Amino acid sequence: MITSEYDGCGKCLVGVRRLSRLKDSTNSPEKQLDQVLSAVTAVGGHVSMG
């Protein structure tokens, strides 16, 4: 996983996953995580955990 503590490098990104009360496989949290990580990788960034 491409996560780290916030270091102010300018490539620290925040990813958000939306949770729903209804099960929707096209918007599952797992699929959303994959989409966030793909976007982060595409710009050469990392996800800030703090």
Quick structural overview:
The chain has one helix and three strands, in the order ββαβ.
Topology:
Elements: E1 3-4, E2 12-13, H1 29-42, E3 46-48
Parallel strand pairs: 1-3, 2-3
Tell me what the structure shows.
The chain has 50 residues and is an alpha/beta fold. 28% of the residues lie in helices and 14% in strands. It contains one helix and three strands; from the N terminus they run E-E-H-E. It has one helix spanning 29-42, and strands at 3-4, 12-13, 46-48. A three-stranded parallel sheet has the order 1-3-2, covered by helices on one side. Helix 1 links the parallel strand 2 (12-13) and strand 3 (46-48). The model has no long low-confidence stretch (mean pLDDT 80).
Specify the number of helices: 1
Q: In one word, what is the shape? A: elongated
Radius of gyration: 12 Å
Helix share bin: 25-40%
Indicate the proportion of strand residues: 5-15%
Overall mean confidence score, pLDDT: 80
Which structural category fits the helices and strands? alpha/beta
The SSE order reads EEHE
Q: List low-pLDDT spans.
A: none
Task: Quickly list its features.
50 residues, alpha/beta, three-stranded parallel beta sheet, 3 strands
